[in-house]
Design brief:
- The complex is a heterotrimer.
- Chain A is built from 12 helices and no strands.
- Chain A is an all-alpha fold.
- The longest helix of chain A has 36 residues, at 86-121.
- In chain B, helix 3 runs antiparallel to helix 4.
- Chain B has a single domain (29-51, 79-295), classed as Orthogonal Bundle (MetI-like fold), CATH 1.10.3720.
- Chain B is elongated, with a radius of gyration of 24 Å.
- Classes of the chains: A mainly alpha, B mainly alpha, C alpha/beta.
- Chains in contact: A-B, A-C.
- Chain A binds chain C through residues 124, 201-203, 205-213, 216, 220-221, 224-225, 298-301, and chain C through 56, 59, 61, 65, 90-95, 98-99, 101, 103, 106-112, 120-121, 124-125, 156, 158, 169, 172.
């Protein structure tokens, strides 16, 4: 197991290298530069700025410099937020996004899995049809529509929660709810279909024939196999969760990494965009590894060789 | 019963199954009320977004500052936006754009995915290994972020959207087609075609690909709503469709800013998008159940 | 052994139907039989004849929907199992009536250790604690002939071969010393050499523990060596029931005769194997009268009417109009 993890971690390096190289040249070949938008600067100042950030050197030198700085753990300076390094900016805004994402996904897991189990046990009942229709609605209503609708209902009509504030725990509720909507829907559907498949299996009949109570049959015998599709989904879901945070942070004025990323992209902040892309890629690759490990723990038939 | 007789019986049976597969699927689809409902709603929305803007007395970019942000009325059913443009017409134009992006991006992903998957699966061996390895690597890219970067740094044109969204959604298609091809290519009728000297590309596209159609159609119908969602998401962030052209994403984005005063500016395009995606998803689910009873997740 | 002649289980006119696509499949359509204490009853039939459904119905293990037990009674220990509440039948399942199934590959939970699956049954029914249950589980595994049981108890089912898995299933089923063991095609999925071992194991443990057994199979050869009585099922009904020896030496129903004829005899070289013509009937659309009549060479116009089950001699019953 340890060997596998080590090998997978080593396998990450070429993938991350490809991502770095791809993004680096993609950005540099795009028209414009970090200071082109700020027309107030005279050409001389721009020249000075380019020199300051090392952008005046030939491209391949810049690339080598970037890589060598990277190996020292230095992600470079930000051009958009002058005077700050990319690492500082990530460190500053990451906790917010992380908190939001974890709460939303945790909530989605609990609610989605519960709905999925109930639906699978009451297959083709009114409860099942209703929850699956709601789940389909959840998949069809994107977060940037759900969020504003929640604001209209809970903030502007019922006055329960503030629309766009950040700082207190209760300010987390609407953003987390918005973010989790789609995942509740997906997880409920995946759990339901996974459970239905497992509940049809012969070993569930065996468990019932032993005289076990239905709750034991479901929770001890069926859930472990039925939940595997949900675990596999967590890898790709994370990509969308990150995208979702961008939207939610925009709607609810949450000072997270998503907004920083959009601003960095729009202002052509080379180092910040690179750093964030690299960071996100690393998170994704690590998460996928984690998912594989969890599936391996859940399903003893999968052997690592 | 002797050998030849029983063999013909089996053949006849398969023949019957073969011809009635599509009819069977059609019958199952018609029985699925939600899918039929989805199809009807979809037809209405498509028809409306094609014809209503043509016959309406308003156009999507006709600015009328005297009528800025008016609530829904008989004159403007969905109200007007901050520049006094008719929200109904803009929502329907948004629908056109959205559906177009969905269909074209899906077509792009279809062509790339089917070709790639068919080649990989048909040749197998090292070629397959290498091609699937590439897919694995691309899979691990945070593609939404790359899309954002691409759109922000290059042009924010609608053609870029077609290309970018198509280019990121072909991966799953390629995997599905490859899997199907792998299971089909060793069946006897392919051997037979090869034995009588049919050329390789001919075998792939004439004999193998048509037999992978079921799952491919299913995945295609589910790609359309997801491409539409991506378009709306990017437009919402200001990276997709650019004004004065309307898209559900941009309209919702504009609506959010005035959410407390003019909520209809957000609600109508938002609901319209939700209803469209809802119908598409139900239809896709129905098609999946109808075309592939084994995949059925009932 | 005073009660040796009394029935431990009486099934009366059991009916289990499946509903789907507007059709009703009468998988079990009026089955009756008695199982005497300590005996082994064989139930033979083609696939789809309703033999498995009959036995799943006894423990009410038919999934609803689509299946439903629509009529009849199953008397066990003076109680009708069809009428007692759910929690009461759960106390019978696994403890007093245990089952083993056809496919040992899929009948064990692949996600749980063998030990946990064995232990939960004695913890549930006998109230054993963890270490007692573990000890018992090892004991049972040794009993069914699994070598190195104290180590293998922590293995998962995929680490066992098919025959070994069926042994584990048997160990599990017999953990609580059930009064009745229902074995549903216990050897069908196994190699021929393993089949004999498993059957011997069941036979031996039956003596040792003193359980009565219902053995479901499509293989007449198994019935011959294992059972005291045999019922032959066709289209959801028992069409013939007799002491096993009598059934083999003096079959009455044309279907039974056909089955017996289609068993190849290795001692006689046969040019062609005998085969009952036609296919088993569609259970949602049964022919009028005797369901076997369209395939029966002795069918007469009388067969348009359903033949009642009648006594041929002391313990021999058959549902056929034929005189002899």
């Amino acid at each position: 197991m340890l060997k596998l993890i080590l090998r997978r971690l080593l396998g990450m390096i070429p993938i991350l290298f490809i991502i770095i190289t791809l993004t680096f040249f993609l950005l540099r070949f795009a028209p414009g530069n970090p200071f082109a938008n700020e027309k107030a600067f005279p050409p001389k100042v721009i020249q000075e700025l380019n020199k300051q950030y090392g952008l005046d050197k030939p491209l391949y030198i810049q690339y080598i410099n970037y890589i060598s700085e990277l190996t020292k753990g230095n992600l470079g300076p930000s051009t958009r937020y002058a005077g700050k390094t990319v690492s500082e900016i990530i460190g500053e805004h990451l906790p917010t996004s992380l908190l939001l994402g974890l709460i939303a996904y945790g909530f989605a897991l609990i609610v989605g899995v519960s709905i999925g189990i109930i639906s699978s046990l009451r297959q083709n009942s009114a409860v099942d049809y209703f929850s699956m229709a709601v789940a389909m609605l959840g998949i069809s209503v994107p977060s940037f529509v759900l969020g504003p609708l929640l604001v209209i209902v809970f903030s502007l009509t019922l006055f329960w929660l503030p629309p766009a504030r950040w700082g207190e725990p209760k300010h987390l509720i609407l953003p987390a709810l918005t973010l989790s909507g789609v995942y509740i829907a997906y997880i409920a559907r995946l759990t339901r279909s996974g459970m239905l498949e497992v509940l049809r299996a012969d070993y569930i009949r065996t468990a019932r024939a032993k005289g076990l109570a239905e709750s034991v049959v479901v929770l001890r015998h069926a859930l472990r196999g039925g939940i595997i599709p949900v675990v596999s989904f967590t890898g790709p879901a994370l990509t969308f969760l990150l995208a979702g945070t961008i939207v939610v942070e925009k709607i609810f004025a949450v000072p997270g990494l998503g907004r920083i990323f959009i601003e960095a992209a729009n202002s052509r902040d080379y180092f910040l965009v690179m750093g964030l892309t690299l960071f996100v890629s690393t998170v994704l690759v690590v998460m996928n590894l984690l998912v594989d490990i969890i599936i391996g723990l859940l399903d003893p038939r999968i052997s690592y060789k | 019963m002797n050998q030849p007789v029983s063999a013909t019986v089996v053949e006849e049976k398969q023949l019957v199954v073969g011809t009635s597969l599509w009819q069977d699927a059609w019958r199952r689809l018609k029985k699925n009320k939600l899918a039929v409902f989805g199809a009807i709603v979809l037809i209405i929305i498509v028809a409306a977004s094609i014809f209503v803007p043509i016959f309406s007395s308003y156009s999507y970019d006709q600015i009328n500052l005297d009528k800025s942000s008016e609530p829904p009325s008989l004159e403007h059913w969905f109200g007007t936006d901050q520049l006094g443009r008719d929200i109904l017409v803009r929502s329907l134009i948004g629908g056109r754009i959205s559906l177009m992006v969905g269909v074209i991006a899906t077509a792009v992903s279809f062509v790339i995915g089917v070709t790639y998957g068919a080649i990989s699966g048909y040749f197998g061996g090292y070629i397959d290994e290498l091609m699937m390895r590439i897919v694995d690597v691309i899979y691990s890219l945070p593609y939404l972020f790359l899309v954002i970067v691409l759109l922000a740094f290059f042009t924010k044109s609608i053609f870029m959207l077609f290309f970018v969204l198509g280019a990121v959604s072909w991966l799953t298609m390629a995997r599905i087609v490859r899997g199907q091809v792998l299971s089909i290519k060793n069946q006897e009728f392919i051997e037979a075609a090869r034995a009588v000297g049919v050329e390789t590309p001919m075998i792939i596209f004439r004999h193998v690909v048509p037999n992978t159609l079921g799952p491919v159609i299913v995945y295609t119908t589910l790609t359309i709503p997801s491409a539409m969602l991506s378009e709306a998401f990017l437009s919402f962030l200001g990276l997709g469709v650019q004004p004065p052209l309307a898209s559900w994403g941009t309209m919702v984005n504009e609506g959010v800013e005035a959410i407390s005063v003019y909520p209809w500016q957000l609600i109508f395009p938002g609901l319209m998008m939700a209803i469209t995606l809802f119908s598409l998803n139900f239809l896709g689910d129905g098609l999946r159940d109808a075309l592939d009873p084994q995949m059925r997740k009932d | 052994m005073a009660k040796s002649n009394s029935a431990i289980l009486s099934v009366r006119n059991l009916q289990t139907h499946f509903y789907g696509d507007g059709a009703v499949v009468k998988a079990v359509d009026g089955v009756s039989f008695d199982l005497k204490l300590g005996e082994t009853l064989g139930i033979v039939g083609e696939s789809g004849s309703g033999k498995s459904v009959t036995n799943l119905s006894i423990l009410r293990l038919i999934p609803y929907p689509p299946g439903k037990i629509v009529g009849g009674e199953v008397i066990f220990d003076n109680k009708d199992l069809m009428k007692i509440p759910e929690n009461e039948i759960r106390r019978i399942r696994g403890k007093r009536i245990a089952m083993i199934f056809q496919d040992p590959m899929t009948s064990l939970n692949p996600f749980m250790k063998i030990g946990a699956q064995l232990m939960e049954i004695t913890q549930l029914h006998e109230g054993l604690n963890n270490s007692q249950a573990r000890k018992k589980a090892i004991e049972m595994l040794e009993l069914v002939g699994i070598a190195d049981a104290s180590r293998r108890i922590d293995d998962y089912s995929h680490q066992f071969s098919g025959g070994m898995r069926q042994r584990v299933m048997i160990a599990m089923a017999l953990s609580c010393k059930p009064e009745l063991l229902i074995a549903d095609e216990p050897t069908t999925a196994l190699d021929v050499t393993i089949q004999a071992q498993i059957l011997e194991l069941i036979k031996g443990l039956k003596e040792k523990i003193g359980t009565s057994v219902i053995l479901i199979t499509h293989d007449l050869g198994i019935v011959a060596g294992m059972t005291d009585h045999t019922g032959v099922m066709y289209a959801g009904k028992i069409v013939e029931y007799a002491p096993t020896e009598e059934l083999f030496s003096n079959p009455h129903h044309p279907y039974t005769k056909g089955l017996l004829k289609s068993v190849p005899d290795p001692l006689i070289e046969q040019k062609k194997l005998f085969q009952i013509p036609g296919l088993p009937p569609d259970l949602s659309n049964l022919p009028k009268g005797c369901p076997f009549s369209p395939r029966c060479s002795s069918a007469t116009t009388q067969c348009q009417e359903f033949p009642p089950i009648r006594q041929i001699n002391a313990e021999h019953y058959s549902a056929c109009w034929l005189e002899n």
